[in-house]
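Provenance

Sequences were taken from public entries as deposited. Structures were produced by running a predictor on each sequence independently, with no templates supplied. The record for Lysosomal Pro-X carboxypeptidase from Brassica campestris is shown for reference.
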Amino acid sequence: MGSELRLVLIISFVSVLVFSTSSSPLPRFPRQNRARIQLFGEDRNDYQYETKYFSQQLDHFSFADLPKFSQRYLINSAHWTGASELGPIFLYCGNEGDIEWFATNSGFIWEIAPKFGALLVFPEHRYYGESMPYGSKEEAYKNATTLSYLTTEQALADFAVFVTDLKRNLSAEASPVVLFGGSYGGMLAAWMRLKYPHIAIGALASSAPILQFEDIVPPQTFYDIVSNDFKRESSSCFNTIKNSWDAIIAEGQKANGLQQLSKTFHFCRALNSTDDLSDWLDSAYSYLAMVDYPYPADFMMPLPGHPIKEVCRKIDGASSDASILERIYAGVSVYYNYTGKVGCFELDDDPHGLDGWNWQACTEMVMPMSSSQKNSMFTAYDFNYSSYKEDCWNTFRVNPRPRWVTTELGGHDIETTLKSFGSNIIFSNGLLDPWSGGSVLKNLSSTIVALVTKEGGHHLDLRPSTPEDPKWLVEQREAEIGLIQGWIRTYRLEKEAQFPLLKRSWESSLLEKEQELLVVEEKIASKESKVLANQAVILKKRKSDVEGELESKCKLAEDEIESKRRVWELREVDIKQREDLVGEKEHDLEVQSRTMAEKEKDITERSYSLDEKEKHLNATEEDINPKTTLLENEKERLRKLDYDLQQTLVSLEDKRKHVDSATEKLEALSETSELSILEMKLKEELDDMRGQKLELLAEADRMKVEKAKFEAEWEHIDVKREELRKEVEYITRQREAFSMYLKDERDNIREERDALRNQHKHDMEALNREREEFMNKMVDEHSEWLSKIQRERADFLLGIETQKRELEYCIENRREKVSALKQKAVVTREEELDLQNGVSTVSNSEDGYNSNNGSSPSSATPFSWIKQYTNLIFKNPPESSLPMHHHEGALPSEKREEKAYTKGLSIALSLVSSLIQQRRGNNTSGSDTNETSNHKKRKHDVTHEVDPESVISSLQNVSEDKHELPSNQTQAPPSIMVVLSEIVKITKVTCETEFINKVSNIECSDDPSEAGTKMVEEKKQDSDCSEVGFFNTQTLSKAKFFSLLV
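Predicted structure for Lysosomal Pro-X carboxypeptidase:
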């Protein structure tokens, strides 16, 4: 821009902006690079992906209802391990071009995806490729207003919104995201990691010149690196290129010099100036420095390995008689025509200068560059911001903001900034790349790492691997893989720490099944119900989510349809308004036509009036003509009279002289009367003549005034006639203009209406296609969800079936145990019968005991032997009194404890009462009949409940009757001790037998949890009996027990 400025801004594969040495409207891209993209970029189908579109906001920083646009993205899920495994998402930040080109030239990401089990996503940058707001590139690039949404901030927000929505749709909110990008895409990856650290866990920014702004790095750095790349290959090559610029200017100044230059460099059209050729060569040298790869590649053009070395070989190896410009052409042909298939070269493929990157370079991506006199092989120049700003204004009507990037995203004191606010960023650079001078070249922290290679080119590490890869490139990629693995490993460890895996509850329950079978059954049943409930809730939630999502998408589509319908309605309203306006204009034209008709009528009337006046004037003129003739005749007569008068005067003068002479003679002679009379007559004649002369002069003056008045009136009539003629001509022209305008307006409205109808028809067809595609997509997604839910349901039912089989196995074991308990209960009953049958024997032993060694308590403490042996039982309870089954759920409550104690004590008192009655019966009569009745009564008392009040009353009666033991008896009879010791055992066995009988009647149903539930309910219903088994020394009050006995 201007003679002071030549700015080369080369971002990624097409971002070369060359500012020529002479003033130019705006820098533009060389056609060959763009052609190379079309020739080689679209034919590469090495990688498989799906092309999809995301409805993206036009402005993320405004709440205005602006139209959305379709952002294209490419996706590959072939190697993704899924959201449940926290499979990572690799996202490439789209550059300033077609996203397919970047996807097919980023082989490194494709190659490591299987290793990481990653999902690959390539979103396209807005205003590039097919991601065009306003529907087309023409509309998007229309003016500064439509281009105002092409900013780095909007692009970063696009990526953030897109990946958040993608993770939500895939139910992969916990999956880590790793960003990738090269050149401008690398800048976006690094900036996104800084601006949205909660969305991505790390970024690989390859060849990202985030410091190429303001004066952070010297502006001559770019061209110095390009020049050094050539100088390291050949000093003579460097000098030849450096001297060629003056040779080009000198040749261009000659006659037919531009034609000769065009011929020398094989251009398809003649050069307009030497600046065009300089820019063309400048672009080639800069690109060669960027893609100076160690092996053959076709990234931008088909090039050999180490292309700069080949260029210098061509320049230095030319024949000795070749001119300096012929040497330059031989060298630059390596870049532009290495295959030899190009016949001629085009200089410009964008005559309008409208390109997305040009807009970005003229707004916020202001990257100043210059060329030094000493170290550069290019023409020396300094960056001139004023000229830069002027050209941007002339092209886009915008002024650049050179400090906005550093204000918004940072740049100054980058080390402190990244240490304080950044982490997990890899800046990879090759020192042969001229953009490496504007990137980060040293480690800033343990997580902000710079991987620098001396022989590397422009984001070479992102290129696909080849057998020709040098060792240092393989090591660089391995280092990048290791760092990314560390990020993902740390992320997963942090997630595991936040959400540790819990042991399944049924695993701990199985360990206690043998001891607590009822609790396990209850827990399994509870767990089963909870799992079913949770699964039902989950399924219901997923179903509602799917339905909600479908509903939202349908609503979104309906809203879009509604919005488009509203747009068409607005257009119809606008058309109607225009038609109304045309109608109004037609009405106005009709009114004007009527007015014009009235005016014409008025003009006709006025013309008629004028004609009448003209006739009147003609008549007057005809009347005046005789008068004029008469006047002329009178004038002629007057002239004659005047002449005669003059003659008369002369004659009179002569006569006067004669008279004077005569008078003198008369005076000399004498006065006579005759002379006096003659003198008087002469005087009278003279007076008459004078009066006639005065009358004639007055008539002449009157005629002159009347003539002047007539002439003035005639001139006024001529002026009016001319004005009327002009007005008629003006009205005629206006009528013709209105007729033409009305015709053109009707034609335009007709054409616009037809265009709108065609556009509406086209849009409705496109909308119908989109609706069908959307519905098909929804059906596919719905089918996928249903199949997924069915698979999960099948897996869940399989788990339930497994647990059911385990429960049936446990129930079978329990039945075996119940059978064993039944057998044991039979044995226990037999022992009970044996015990009852042995009461008489115990009584006889008691009699022997009383007669030999017994002693009687004192009369003040009746039945003290019962109290003593009660204390003994409390201190040493029988083993059989311990509960067989003890679990937390069986602990009696306070009321149930009281009831169980009362029942157990009632049985005990009934036994004691039976023994006392037996002793009384033995003292009175020892007949077998009484024994048999007592035995039956004891058996009845053991198996049936006895009213404790009647037993206590019976005991009190015994006390009042002084039926006490002998006074010398000091120990309780053995029969009492045996009875007290067996009370709990008998009661427990009886209750457990009842419970076993009830349980044995339960049949196993298809649902194992139902049988377990019934067992638990039977246990609870029989708790009044089973809790007697807890008749122990720790819960039974001795005082209460003794008070009930006594």
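Strands lie at 50-56, 69-76, 89-92, 119-123, 177-182, 202-206, 425-430, 448-453.
The chain has 30 helices and eight strands.
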